[in-house]
Amino acid sequence: MAGNDWINSYLEAILDVGPGLDDAKTSLLLRERGRFSPTRYFVEEVITGFDETDLHRSWVKAAATRSPQERNTRLENMCWRIWNLARQKKQLEGEEAQRMAKRRLERERGRREATADMSEDLSEGEKGDIVSDISAHGDSTRGRLPRISSVDVMETWASNQKGKRLYIYTCSLHGLIRGENMELGRDSDTGGQVIKYVVELARALGSMPGVYRVDLLTRQVSSPDVDWSYGEPTEMLTPTNSEGFADEMGESSGAYIIRIPFGPKDKYIPKELLWPHISEFVDGALNHIIQMSKVLGEQIGGGQPVWPVAIHGHYADAGDSAALLSGALNVPMLFTGHSLGRDKLEQLLKQGRQSRDEINMTYKIMRRIEAEELSLDASEIVITSTRQEVDQQWNLYDGFDPILERKLRARIKRNVSCHGRFMPRMVVIPPGMEFHHIVPQDGDMDGETEGNDDHPASPDPSIWSEIMRFFTNPRKPMILALARPDPKKNITTLVKAFGECRPLRELANLTLIMGNRDGIDEMSSTNASVLLSILKMIDKYDLYGQVAYPKHHKQSDVPDIYRLAAKTKGVFINPAFIEPFGLTLIEAAAHGLPLVATKNGGPVDIQRVLDNGLLIDPHDQQSIAEALLKLVADKQLWTRCRQNGLKNIHLFSWTEHCKTYLSRIASCKPRHPQWQRNDDGVENSESDSPSDSLRDIQDLSLNLKFSLDGEKNEASGNLDNPLESEESAVDGKSKLENAVLNWSKGIKDSRKAGFTEKAYQNFGSGKFPALRRRYYIFVIAVDCDSITGLVEITGNIFEAVGKERMEGSVGFILSTSSTMSELHSSLISGGLSVTDFDAFICNSGSDLYYPSLTSEDCPFVVDQDYHSHIEYRWGGEGLRKTVVRWASSITDKKGESEEQIVTEDEQLSTNYCYAFKVRKPVGVPTVKEVRKFMRIQALRCHVIYCQSGTKLNVIPVLASRSQALRYLYIRWGVDLSKMVVFVGECGDTDYEGLLGGIHKTVILKGVSSSASSQLHANRSYPLSDVVSFDSPNIAQTTEGCCSANVRNALEKLGLFEG
User: To which H or E segment does residue 313 belong?
Assistant: First the structure.
């Protein structure tokens, strides 16, 4: 066959196997008792190159077939299968190469355009300001506090922190998290890099001076499949070293694990299945934070709520949650990715076993990547463990460009405008470890460790006998590997290297601690496959008596396992293909073990600091064997590596980590709910929600403006140039602003405007706005083709709850992509009054209004406090210019002429929403492509196609209609669980955010359009990765949206009796 000659040659080699050929140059891999076997070469090199276990099984069956004809037929079929795999792999590699080339061109073009916008050139000195100056172990220590190297320095630093009372919030959603006896390696969600790291970080931070409380929020799991402790709502973490700061301890101080119930009840599920329940976690976490802020306010805040100083998300799912919480609370966000989705996607594509769609279906990888991109949009600081993570992994993301980041940083230092562009700060802080309880093993297997007064000799730990029972000669040095049986941990290559190196087998034993298991059949298919491969290799190389692989160990046994390896003068190895950091390397070094580790990832940085071992290529088994043999055989090298590790290990202490961590938090601009601040000397309301007094109304007058589209008259949204903002503010002294002053004066002057009597007459209890006294809040967020359709549906919903509406127990909010002026005219023409509603969420969630009961000319007031929540990283005029330039490039060619498809709509644009008309929805880029364009330009915004794709709204990145609902909860105490959101079967491209959470959702069947459905056709991930449609909080009308069907859906949700 033309182009497939190599297949024919392999086929002939297999079918016509003759006598073996002696070849002195043939490698050990190609030899079989001194004879070259084409058959073996074909199986081991070609088949295993695709890592297809089913092909190996087919080979075993073919080899066992006695009939030559049948065997040849089987082998020929295998050839064709492998040829097909090779073709698929080559196709995937070609497609990936094209994507990478396109991505490089897009990034270079975006960088050029951003640089052109930022017209001022950088000096040579500024060009040298590189990201590495923030490395924890780099040559430069600029911006870092002095290293804690003595008790005196620690006491001095601690005394400077005593006046602080910080509340820090961290979250890690998946896996099983508890303070003691962590089940590390139980499954792929219980790795040490996430589970152990987040617990130890919270514990260490809780013991630091100046930190009052640390909350680690995770999922509550009350399942018979796991221990009961994971169902406990609260667990206090025992402090490690807080004796010197006991005077700072208070009633609620310290570090705590807070477990939030979300997702399927009574079921432990993998992280890939948690994505549809993220919004539910966010709402639950928000409730906890608000309650805790009030408690801490009573204890240490003088009655003022104490908000978190930062919100730290760990891994992509928690990063997504932290971004939403950060936006809702207006609190700085930190993010640690641990393991990144784009890097994993590239690795899986290189293997050639699965297509991109298959990978996405298995790992929900596109949902994960989008969460990481959103985390980049929202984070002020991204904490990484190594430089490799910054240079090679984060560099894969649209939202981070190290070259553009350096330019932006230089401009910020020069106090020069960045034209609306922002980039998170990458900070390298290696994970820490507690060393005070570790006593390095000084004895050996020939003599027991001598006891002394401080550390008397004790019986050998039980785990020692559990391991040593595997060995024929337990006194040989132990090569220790501690990792779950995951393909990426590369344990099989380690066993192969050990089995094929006779000198190494003669000198050492191999111990594999591969998590806990009861039976192989009960393990996941991937882990079981790896373990079976290891057991087969042990049998193949006859390693019985030389390899230990115990089934069980406790987390408390791990230090004893390290001690046993050190006692035998052994070596610790981490042969993973890529290791994000390598906490086990730090632990092993602290116990006096030399290291052999992969050269890909964090171990490079660790080795550079500790200088206590060798780096290897994880794909080269000969390199692995030689490095192990070198350390085991050369006792002087072993001793030198051990001493170097023990001498330098303090550089990875938790104290050092937390000190750098806290200094980075201190560098963030403090942000918290804006209405708590008092910058103008005006005595604002101090309570979380205003009290039932006239002073509350007076307070509100300071932050609410009369408006029909009042945002047009606010200070300019351009945050880059304060001079422009000042001028705009002066020019903006319009009659609307004067109306605000007159309004507040009218309150003080009692009856001048007739407000006082009307206030108590119309508000009843005097609370403002009225939604605070409703039992239920109905949010009408139906994205109709026209506002007229929205008014009709609103009338049906009014009719469905007519009785409750008249009683005042149900309030209503309209949520739409339209402006307030458009909405107002439609309400009037539809026979509805503005007073029928308690609030209006307009412009896709970028503006929030309340009806005014005191002004006929200006029937609405705009909530400026809401703008302070969403303006973080809003690009202002710089963003607008870039979007206008992008819009001009979207054209429709008609013969020789070109028609611009997307045009700016200045009339409908506001300071926090840039509106664009779309003349031809089918001809515009998808929302994910527009979002990608903005991120490459370092512009942080939320792009929404609305009104069946005929309009494009560009709003702040953390503004949305769903975030506006959370703001109402924080600002006015509106219970989210008492909200009911009405949506259609489809909607604008922010539709997905309205469905999840603890609120109730009613889906109106048949209310959508084909155009709206088309907006979601090119999603990166299916809607099922965002929303759990089998949730008890979601109901769907049977047919249409008549009042009877709406009432039935509400009864299904248990809101009203039938």
Answer: strand 310-314
Residue 36's H or E segment, with its range, is strand 35-36
> Three-state SS for 716?
coil
Query: What's the CA gap between 2 and 76, in Å, rounded?
Result: 17
Secondary structure (3-state) at 516: coil
Q: Which element (helix H / strand E) includes 72?
A: helix 68-117
Measure Cα distances from 488 to 93, 484, 579 in Å.
20, 10, 9
Q: How many helices and strands (H and E) does the chain possess?
A: 37, 31
Q: Is the separation of the CB atoms in 224 and 179 below 8 Å?
A: no
Report the sign of the C-alpha dihedral through residues 987, 931, 344, 51, in that order: positive
Q: Is the pLDDT of residue 682 over 70?
A: no
Helix (H, G, I), strand (E, B) or coil at 593: coil
> What CA–CA distance (Å, rounded) separates 180 from 909?
55
CA distance 68 to 592: 58
What would the two tokens of residue 943 be? 């792009």
Q: Does the N-terminal peptide bond of residue 308 adopt cis geometry, omega within 30 degrees of 0?
A: no
Please give the structure tokens belonging to residue 82: 């492998």
**pLDDT 10s digits, 825-841:** 888 888 898 889 999 99
Q: Nearest-CA neighbor of 231 among 221, 239, 240, 241? A: 221
CA–CA separation, 416 and 322 (whole Å): 30
Burial of residue 214 (number of CB atoms within 10 Å: 0-12, 13-18, 19+): buried
Q: Is residue 367 helix, strand or coil?
A: helix
The rounded distance, in Å, linking the Cα atoms of 291 and 382 is 28
Q: How many CB atoms lie within 10 A of CB 816?
A: 26
45-63 confidence digits (pLDDT tens): 444 444 444 555 666 666 6
Strands, E assignment, 126-271: 166-171, 211-219, 234-237, 254-260
Characterize 322-336 residue by residue with b for buried, 16 or more Cβ atoms within 10 angstroms of its Cβ, and e for exposed.
bbbbbbbbbbbbbbb
**Coil, helix or strand at residue 686:** coil
Confidence (pLDDT) at 740 = 35
**DSSP single-letter state for residue 139:** S
The reported pTM is 0.77
Measured CA angle at 1004 (ends 1001, 1009), to 5 deg:
125
> Above 90 in pLDDT, residue 817?
yes
Residues in the chain: 1058
Q: Which residues contact 871 (CB under 8 A, 6 or more apart)?
A: 717, 719, 912, 956
CB-based contact 1033:998 (threshold 8 Å): yes
Sheet containing 902-904: give its strands across: 902-904, 914-918, 951-956, 941-946
- Which of 809, 808, 810, 861 has the alpha carbon at shortest distance from 834? 861
Rg over alpha carbons for the chain, rounded to the nearest Å, is 32
* Token couple for 202: 């919270």
Closest CA to 391 of 608, 131, 580, 133: 131
Distances (CA, A) of 466 to 272, 310, 460, 471: 35, 45, 11, 10
User: What 3-state class would DSSP assign to 588?
Assistant: helix
Cβ contact 842:910 at 8 Å? no
Q: Roughly how many angstroms between the first and final C-alpha of the chain, as a whole number?
A: 73
Distance of alpha carbon 204 from alpha carbon 1014, whole angstroms: 50
At residue 776, the pLDDT reads 94
Query: Which residues are registered as beta bridge partners of 219?
Result: 260
Report the candidate in 170, 188, 203 with the shortest Cα–Cα distance to residue 319.
170
Q: Report the relative pairing of strands 254-260 and 211-219 from DSSP bridges.
A: parallel
Which token pair is 606? 């660790």
| AA letter at 725 | S
- Span 734-775, pLDDT tens digits: 443 444 334 333 333 333 333 333 332 333 334 457 888 899
What value, to the nearest 5°, has the Cα angle with vertex 312 and ends 308 and 315?
155
Q: Which residue has the tokens 């000969």?
A: 622
